[in-house]
Amino acid sequence: MDIRIFKNSYELSCAAADLIAEAIKRKNAVLGLATGASPKETYDRLIEKYNKGEISFKNVTTFNLDEYCAIPRTDKHSYFTYMCESLFNHVDIKEENIHVPDGNPENTEEYCASYDEAIKNAGGIDIQLLGIGRNGHIGFNEPSDSFTKGTYKVKLSDSTVEANKIYFSSNDKMPEYAITMGVESILNAKEIILIAQGKAKAEAVNNMINGEISPSCPASILRKHNAVHIFLDGEAASLL
Ligand code: F6R
Fold first, then answer.
1. Which of the 8 DSSP states describes residue 135?
2. Does the Cβ of 37 fall within 6 Å of ligand 1?
3. Prediction pTM value
4. 154 pocket-lining for ligand 1 (C-beta < 6 Å)
């Protein structure tokens, strides 16, 4: 594991954006993308690189990790909306190359299998961006008894609902389910960058790096992958 601790979130986001930009310059990259607070500044840096003409998204394909169920993708809380506002609306990516899971598929099993198939048909993910949950989740793969495989519908854990409900007002109930890529789909990526910032992530980060490799901390499985970068700020690294 390439573990790097940065002075501040600006430097962290520059380093993460540099790695993604390299992948984009190398080939018609397939990016695995995350939402939430952790990757937000990295997207800002990528938009800056695009505006300076250093990179283009014209031949980039993206697959997002997850999406909430029970809200339409046009909802202000959906991960589709987050991605449009945080990245897609600001760069030259083609609409047909954007993939964010459908949170409300007609046939969940068939849909999930087709999402995995689409990743395979695109040639697999070249670089996967991840955050980590306070409970060690990656994507929405919550702590459990076994590591998950492909894309599936998951019931969000109490810890995840607690962490994410701040984004929902009391009138907008936080969804209890999501569609997420499985752990195996994530591990199939050729290269992975996990970003963690802040004290609330310190325990999960320590478990991921120093704890047992176990589905009780889904992120711990990343230690089995041969090209993982863990980018931390001082607080997230404080228990290492
Ligand atoms: C988001 C995702 C989640 C988040 C994690 C951390 O697409 O898959 O695993 O990365 O919950 O969220 P933040 O970054 O908001 O602390």
1. T
2. yes
3. 0.97
4. no
